[in-house]
Design a protein that fits this description.
single chain; six-stranded mixed sheet; 9 helices; 14 strands; alpha+beta
Length: 284
């Protein structure tokens, strides 16, 4: 599998071709732009060295942990065969030792191409998750640490609704699309319109960068977004005029969330113990 592609359960044979940018209106073939997140400065220098000092392609751009590859499309497959490049492009461990998800963003992808990529990967897949906005396609392959945080938070929410007797429809990472925006959240819940989009969604973001999730969910009209970032759970509420999100101290749908308990459970890194602690804390 080409190094540019995050690991997926069963790579689709035509995926590499589908990820090439579309011809622009003048019929010209644009350059290929691929952005990798979670790359340290030392890793960037090692990648630059591995590609060779006398190369004409690719060009590299680096800022705040994001590394952009810019190549002409016909050179891309050759570049990806550089020894050790696949390993170098994996994100670094975080300061707390957590293994982050892998995020790769492809530019110049049309809406139709995005739909074709989603279909090629299969509807019943567990990985990767896709996000699309304004011609940018982000492919996210989650890590074990990502999944553990997701499991603890989702279990807390489900137990809370059970205790309160609130009728809710869990939506998981179901695909949502509207107005050429697409997302597959880590988890989501409906409390009102069970046939429509969720009332709130949850994202684990151990690495920064990628397609801006709040911009995607604003386009989709999601009332509330939860994001786990740097060991904290952050809440964002959509403004009444849907012009954007405001940071909030708590959730309007789960107003009594005991963040201290939640943080302790996540820090346990022991699922049975975390599950017991959640139930004891909630009295379920």
């Amino acid at each position: 599998m080409p190094a540019a592609l995050p690991e997926i359960d069963e790579p689709a044979p035509d995926l590499a071709e589908l990820l090439r940018p579309d011809l622009i209106e003048e019929g010209m073939l644009p350059e290929m732009r691929v952005v990798y997140s979670g790359i340290s400065w030392d890793r960037y220098l090692a990648i630059d060295k591995a590609l060779g000092d006398d190369r004409s392609s690719p060009r590299l751009y680096y800022l705040n942990g994001e590394l952009e590859f810019v190549t002409v499309s016909q050179d891309h497959d050759r570049i990806l065969r550089v020894p050790d490049l696949a390993e170098l492009l994996r994100p670094d461990l975080l300061e707390d030792g957590l293994l982050p998800e892998m995020r790769v963003v492809y530019s110049g992808i049309s809406w139709q191409r995005y739909l074709a990529i989603d279909q090629a990967l299969g509807e019943d897949r567990s990985s990767p998750r896709l996000y699309y906005l304004n011609g940018e396609l982000e492919i996210v392959t989650v890590s074990n640490d990502h999944e553990y945080i997701l499991r603890v938070v989702s279990f807390w929410v489900d137990e809370y609704f059970t205790r309160e007797g609130i009728h809710v429809q869990p939506r998981g990472h179901t695909t949502m699309r509207l107005k050429e925006a697409g997302a597959e959240p880590d988890d989501a819940w409906c409390l009102s319109n069970f046939e429509g989009f969720p009332d709130f969604v949850f994202e684990v973001a151990l690495t920064s960068g990628g397609v801006r999730k709040l911009d995607v969910y604003q386009r989709l009209g999601i009332p509330e977004v939860w994001i786990w970032r740097r060991g904290q759970l952050l809440f964002y509420r959509l403004r009444p005029d849907e012009s954007g999100y405001d940071r909030c101290d708590s959730s309007q749908f789960v107003p009594n969330l005991d963040l201290a308990l939640l943080y302790r459970c996540v820090a346990m890194k022991d699922w049975p113990a975390a599950r017991r602690s959640v139930r004891e804390g909630l009295g379920t």
